[in-house]
Design goal:
Elements: E1 4-7, E2 29-32, E3 39-41, E4 46-56, E5 62-67, H1 70-76, E6 78-80, E7 85-87, E8 94-101, E9 107-109, E10 114-122
Antiparallel strand pairs: 1-4, 2-10, 3-9, 4-8, 5-7, 5-10, 6-8
Length: 149
Amino acid sequence: MQLKIKALSPKIGREIPAPFYASAGAAAMDLHACLDQAVTIPAGKRAVIPTGIAIALPSAEYVALVFARSGLGIKHGVAPANCVGVIDSDYRGEVMVGLQNSGDQDYTIQPGDRIAQLMISPVIQAQIQMVEELDDTARGAGGFGSTGK
C-alpha cells in the first residue's frame, strides 16, 4: 500500500525529517514536531503539537494510528493525551499530536523532536447486528481482573 504524504511546511525534508521507517522491522514511523520555537508542556498539562504534514490513505481499508514513543512516555511521562490517535482514511488536514505531560516536571519540545509514532493498519468495518442475547462463553461477563493477574 502507498501512503501519500504532503508537506504543509517548507521545513519538512529540510530542517524537520519527513516520516520514515527507522529500520526494516519497524512497525511505525516517527512523527516530528514542526515548530518555529520550543513549546513547554507544564507538568499535568496538555499541548497540541503540529507535524507539518498531511496524509492520504488509499481507502477506507486503512487507518493511521498515532502512538506514544516509548522513551518519551516512560522517561518523561509525555504521551498522546487521547492514548491513541485515529486518523481516518478521509481526513486530509494536518496531522496534529495532542500530548499530555503526566510527569512531575515541565517538558520542552524542540523543533524537530520526535513526538509520536504513526502506524498504518488494516480496518474491518463490522456489519452491525442488534440481538436480544449473546452466545455464552466460559468467561461470560467477567470483567476487570476476572482472568487473574
